[in-house]
C-alpha cells in the first residue's frame, strides 16, 4: 500500500468514534443486508428483474469490488452511497415496471407485455445504481482491513456477513415491509459515516436517508399491499356485478391469481373442471400443488373430495385465501395446508392420492443467488413427474393446467408425462389464445378418459427438462441473445469502472489467481444453492440456510488457517480437486433416495468439502499478499465474473459448472506467484 493510502487509513483509524473490529462487523453486516434488500425490493417493483434478479447481484459484486479497490485513493467519506440509494428509490417509486393486463405477447419466456420504462433503459440504471450504492459500504469495510492482520480482518468480515444474513432472514420470517429495510440502512449510514463537516453530513446522509425511509413508508402503507418472503403481494376486490366477491391478486406487479367462488370459476373457464372429467376414478384424496388463494381447493371440495392436501410455498398467499376467498376453503376440516415447496413435498410425503394437480404453479420469480432457477423449476422435470406417479393410488391420475404461451411448451410437457408414465396423456387445448391447456395422465392408460387421442409432439419439440437442466421455458440449449448482449455490456462497463475507480489494471496483476478463485467460488456457490433447492426445496428458508452455511464453511476455513498449520497450497489444491470430483460423481438421484436426516448429512459433506478446501486455499494465499484491499477487491470482482458465467448452466447444466470451476482452479494454481510478496 502506498504512503498516501496508509495515511488515509490512519486518518480514519484516529477519527472514527467506533473501534475497528465492531466497525468492520457492522459495515460488513450492512453491506450484505443492503445487497439482499436491493435484490428483493427492486425485483418487486421492476418486473424485468423477476427474470434478471442476478443482474442486481452482479451490480452489487461490482460495487463491492470497486469499494475495496478505492480504499487509499481518496480520504473522503463515501457520502455518494446514501445519495444514490435515495435517487434509486425515488426513480423506482415514480417509474415502476408492471405488467400491462390489457395486452398479450411474450416477454422473455412467459410473461405479458409491460408498462413503464423499457428493459434497455431501466436495467442499466438498476445495475449502475446497485454498484454505486454497494461501493460505499464496501469502501468502509475495506478501510478496516489494513488496520488488522489479513485473516483477522477477513474473519470479522465473515462474522458481519453472517449477521447481515441473519438480520434479513429474521425480517423475512416476520414478513417485515421495506420501510424496516430503509430504517436499518439509515441507522447504519448514520453510524458508519463520520459527521464532518456537519453541513455536508446533513445534506448527503441525513436528508437522503429520510427520503428513502419516507418513500418506503408510503409504499408500505399503500392499501392492499403485503410483503411475503418472495413477493410484494397486492390485492383488490373487483367491481364486477356479473361475478361478485372476486379478489384480484398480483405479485411483483404481475397478475397472478383470482380468489373467486368455485362455481363461477368452473363456469367461466373449462380448464378447472377438466382434470376431474379426464380421471376415471372419482377422486377422494386430492393433492393440489400451487394452492394459492384457494380456488382450486374449493373446486376439489365441490367435486366431492374427502381429503385435500393443499401445498403452497408462499405463506401470504395462503393467508389471503383464508381471509378473502368467498368459499372459505381453508376453513374446511377436509383441507390440510402445507407451506412448503411442491417438489420437496412430493419427495417426502408417504401419502398416496387419487388425483395430483399442479394448479398453475408459475412463481414468476427466480431463486436468489441462482441466475436461471425459478421457484417452480424442479416441478416440471421428468424426475418430478416420476415422483408424482409414485404418489398415485391404483386408478389415480395426475393433471396440470396453465396458460403456456407457446404450443411447443404444451408438447414438451405432454412428452415429459409420456416418458414418465409410459403412455400418452390426454391433452386438451382449451383456448389457443395464450395456449391455455390441460394435460392429464392416468396411472395407466386405462385410468384416463381422453376426449381425443393426443397426436404426439410436433417436430422440433425440445426433450423433457431434467433436474440438471430444469429450464422448462428455454426451448434450445443456448443462452438467449438478450442475456448474452446484456452480460457483455455488464463486463464492458465493469472493465471501464475498474479503470476509472481503481486506476491502472497492473495494480491487480499480481492477484490474477485470486480473481480466478473468485470466479470459481461463485460457480461453486451457485451449484450449492441449486443442489440444496432440489434436495430440500426452493423455499426462502432453505436458501437462507444455504447462504449461511456457505459463510460458516468459509469462516471455518479461515479459523483453521489462522490457528493451525495447514498443508502447502499444492496439497490443498489436491483436496479441492478431490472434493470437486466427489461432487461430480455423487448423483442427485441417490441423494434424493436417502431419508431426510441422512440426505442432509450427505449433501452437506458433498457440497461443503470443496467450498471449505477452496477457502483454505484462498485464506493461505490472501494471508501472504502485499496489499489486502487490492487483492480482496480482485477476488470480489472475480465473483462478479462468476455471476456472469453462471448462465453457462443454460447450456451445460448445473453439474457442468463443476467442470468449469475445476478448470478455473487449475488456472489459479498455474498463476500462483513463485515468490509471494510479504504481507
UniProtKB/TrEMBL annotation:
List, alphabetically, the Pfam families matched.
Answer: Spermine_synth
Q: Name one GO biological process term.
A: polyamine biosynthetic process
Bilayer-crossing residues are 24-43, 49-72, 79-99, 119-141, 153-173, 179-195, 200-218, 482-502, 514-534, 540-558, 570-592, 598-618, 654-672
Q: What superkingdom heads the lineage? A: Bacteria
* InterPro entries in alphabetical order: SAM-dependent_MTases_sf (IPR029063)
Protein name according to UniProt? Spermine/spermidine synthase
Keywords, comma-separated and alphabetical: Membrane, Polyamine biosynthesis, Transmembrane, Transmembrane helix
Amino acid at each position: 500500500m502506498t504512503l498516501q493510502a496508509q495515511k488515509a487509513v490512519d486518518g480514519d483509524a484516529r477519527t472514527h468514534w467506533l473501534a475497528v473490529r465492531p466497525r468492520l462487523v457492522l459495515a460488513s453486516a450492512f453491506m450484505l443486508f443492503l445487497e439482499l434488500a436491493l435484490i428483493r425490493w427492486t425485483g418487486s417493483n421492476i418486473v424485468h428483474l423477476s427474470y434478471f434478479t442476478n443482474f442486481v447481484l452482479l451490480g452489487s459484486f461490482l460495487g463491492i469490488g470497486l469499494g475495496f479497490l478505492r480504499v487509499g485513493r481518496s480520504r473522503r467519506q463515501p457520502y455518494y452511497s446514501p445519495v444514490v440509494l435515495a435517487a434509486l428509490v425515488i426513480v423506482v417509486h415514480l417509474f415502476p415496471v408492471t405488467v400491462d393486463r390489457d395486452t398479450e405477447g411474450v416477454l422473455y419466456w412467459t410473461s405479458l407485455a409491460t408498462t413503464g420504462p423499457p428493459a434497455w433503459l431501466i436495467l442499466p440504471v438498476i445495475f449502475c445504481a446497485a454498484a454505486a450504492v454497494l461501493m460505499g459500504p464496501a469502501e468502509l469495510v475495506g478501510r478496516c482491513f489494513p488496520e488488522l492482520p489479513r485473516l483477522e480482518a477477513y474473519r470479522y468480515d465473515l462474522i458481519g456477513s453472517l449477521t447481515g444474513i441473519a438480520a434479513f432472514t429474521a425480517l423475512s420470517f416476520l414478513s417485515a415491509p421495506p420501510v424496516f429495510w430503509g430504517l436499518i440502512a439509515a441507522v447504519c449510514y448514520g453510524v458508519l459515516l463520520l459527521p464532518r463537516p456537519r453541513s455536508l453530513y446533513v445534506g448527503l446522509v441525513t436528508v437522503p436517508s429520510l427520503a428513502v425511509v419516507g418513500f418506503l413508508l408510503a409504499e408500505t402503507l399503500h392499501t392492499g399491499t403485503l410483503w411475503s418472503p418472495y413477493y410484494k403481494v397486492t390485492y383488490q376486490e373487483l367491481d364486477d356485478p356479473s361475478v361478485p366477491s372476486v379478489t384480484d391478486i398480483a405479485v411483483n406487479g404481475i397478475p397472478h391469481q383470482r380468489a373467486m367462488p368455485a362455481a363461477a370459476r368452473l363456469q367461466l373457464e373449462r380448464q378447472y373442471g377438466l382434470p376431474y372429467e379426464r380421471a376415471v376414478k372419482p377422486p377422494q384424496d386430492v393433492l393440489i400443488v400451487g394452492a394459492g388463494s384457494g380456488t382450486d381447493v374449493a373446486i376439489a371440495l365441490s367435486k366431492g373430495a374427502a381429503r385435500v392436501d393443499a401445498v403452497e410455498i408462499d405463506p401470504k398467499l395462503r393467508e389471503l385465501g383464508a381471509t378473502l376467498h368467498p368459499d372459505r376453503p381453508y376453513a374446511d376440516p377436509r383441507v390440510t395446508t402445507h407451506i412448503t415447496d411442491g417438489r420437496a413435498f412430493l419427495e417426502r410425503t408417504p401419502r398416496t392420492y387419487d388425483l395430483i394437480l399442479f394448479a398453475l404453479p408459475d412463481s414468476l420469480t427466480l431463486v436468489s443467488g441462482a441466475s436461471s432457477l425459478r421457484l417452480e423449476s424442479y416441478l416440471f422435470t421428468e424426475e418430478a413427474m416420476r415422483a408424482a406417479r409414485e404418489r398415485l393410488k391404483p386408478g389415480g391420475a395426475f393433471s396440470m393446467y396453465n396458460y403456456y404461451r407457446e404450443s411447443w411448451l404444451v408438447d414438451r410437457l405432454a412428452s415429459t408425462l409420456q416418458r414418465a408414465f409410459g403412455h400418452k396423456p390426454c391433452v386438451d387445448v382449451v383456448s389457443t389464445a395464450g395456449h391455455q391447456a390441460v394435460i392429464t395422465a392416468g396411472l395407466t392408460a386405462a385410468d384416463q378418459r381422453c376426449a381425443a387421442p393426443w397426436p404426439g409432439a410436433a417436430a422440433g419439440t425440445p426433450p423433457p427438462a431434467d433436474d440438471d437442466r430444469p429450464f422448462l421455458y428455454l426451448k434450445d440449449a443456448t443462452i438467449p441473445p438478450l442475456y448474452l448482449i446484456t452480460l457483455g455490456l455488464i463486463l464492458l462497463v465493469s472493465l471501464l469502472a475498474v479503470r476509472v475507480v481503481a486506476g491502472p489494471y497492473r495494480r491487480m496483476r499480481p492477484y490474477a489467481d485470486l480473481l480466478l478463485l473468485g470466479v470459481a467460488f461463485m460457480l461453486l456457490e451457485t451449484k450449492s444453492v441449486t443442489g440444496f433447492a432440489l434436495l430440500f426445496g426452493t423455499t426462502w428458508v432453505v436458501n437462507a440456510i444455504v447462504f449461511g452455511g456457505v459463510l460458516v464453511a468459509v469462516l471455518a476455513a479461515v479459523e483453521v488457517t489462522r490457528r493451525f498449520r495447514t498443508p502447502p497450497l499444492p496439497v490443498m489444491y489436491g483436496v479441492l480437486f478431490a472434493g470437486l470430483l466427489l461432487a461430480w460423481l455423487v448423483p442427485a438421484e441417490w441423494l434424493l433416495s436417502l431419508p431426510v436426516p441422512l440426505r442432509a448429512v450427505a449433501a452437506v459433506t458433498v457440497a461443503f468439502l470443496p467450498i471449505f478446501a477452496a477457502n483454505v486455499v484462498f485464506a493461505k494465499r490472501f494471508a501472504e499478499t502485499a496489499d489486502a484491499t487490492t487483492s480482496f477487491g480482485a477476488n470480489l470482482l472475480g465473483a462478479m465474473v462468476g455471476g456472469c458465467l453462471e448462465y453457462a448452466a443454460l447450456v451445460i447444466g448445473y453439474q457442468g459448472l463443476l467442470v468449469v470451476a475445476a478448470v478455473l482452479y487449475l488456472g489459479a494454481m498455474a498463476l500462483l506467484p513463485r515468490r509471494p510478496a510479504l504481507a
